[in-house]
Amino acid sequence: QVQLVESGGGLVPPGGSLRLSCAASGRIFRIYIMGWYRQAPGKQRDLVATITYDGISNYAEDVKGRFTISRDNAKNTGYLQMNSLKPEDTAVYYCNARLRTVLSTTPSDVWGQGTQVTVSS
Which of the residues 100, 106, 109, 114 has an alpha carbon 20 to 30 A from that of 53? Predict the structure, then answer.
């Protein structure tokens, strides 16, 4: 069984910064794509950013220039650096991994439990 655990969320004032971490554990062969998604109360879960195994990233339009996604393949860990935070960034942030385990011949999606980010004075 593969598990993803997010950490680093919390309360931050507008204009502040947070760094989220996503640690994957288990019998992982390769994490092809790692991504961050967010969901505010009563709203759908939206893409924030994704990054490939080789470090190619893409971002939602409303976070470009403020957020940076990265990963450490040796540690099976992903990160989301969030700068210039706005109240509208408030949401539960979820880590996602498209991966293959050592026992699998096909990739599957795994989700973390989420971490709360609140941007408020």
Answer: 114
